[in-house]
Every structure is written in structure tokens, then in C-alpha cells.
Amino acid sequence: MFSYVLDYLPGPHNNIFKEIDAIKAFAAEEVKLHQASLDPSAPQDFIDCFLSKMQEEKHNPRSHFHMTNLITSTFDLFIAGTETTSTTIRYGLLLLLKYPKIQ
């Protein structure tokens, strides 16, 4: 509710916000690259499908297919993918430590 107040308070949360902004900038750059090479008849991934749908619904003012949602969705998918990957690797290493004969 008052998240803008956090901008003025010192602490480690500021580093997290900077990292989030950096990842969102990366997602925005990926979207730009996809826009430049978009072929609506042959979408390659989620971003291409979303961009195609954005073009279809560009005259609908109530559409949820706009750039902000695309960047946010891409950010969410990136975070979800990296989190599950790191959890799987951590669990695998834990199993190797617990059962050294498997190594």
C-alpha cells in the first residue's frame, strides 16, 4: 500500500529492487528483439504469441494484452524458472551429500 515509502528508507531491500529492475530491463530487451523478428504465422515462444495477440487486440482498449503485462509475465516466468531450477540443483546436491556412495 505504501511501497513508495520504502524508496526513502535505507536497507537491503533497495538492492532487491535494483535487481528486480535489472531483470525487468532484460525482459524488456528480449521483447524488443522479438518484436524486430516477429513472424505472426510462426510464433517461436510465449513472447511471440503474446505479441501476436497484442496486434490482434490493439483496437480493444480493455484488452489485457499490452506491453506492461508482457514484460511482467516474462519476468514472472523467468523468476519461476530460475527458482525451480535452483531448488532442484540444491536438492540434488543435498542427496549427494547425504548418500556419498552415489557419487
Automatic annotation (TrEMBL):
Its cofactor is heme. InterPro entries: Cyt_P450, Cyt_P450_E_grp-I, Cyt_P450_sf, Cytochrome_P450_fam2. GO terms for biological process: epoxygenase P450 pathway; xenobiotic metabolic process. It is found in: Endoplasmic reticulum membrane; Microsome membrane. GO terms for cellular component: endoplasmic reticulum membrane. Signal peptide: none annotated. Its EC number is 1.14.14.1. Keywords: Endoplasmic reticulum, Iron, Membrane, Metal-binding, Microsome, Monooxygenase, Oxidoreductase. One of its GO terms (molecular function) is arachidonate epoxygenase activity. It is a peripheral membrane protein. Belongs to the cytochrome P450 family. This is unspecific monooxygenase.
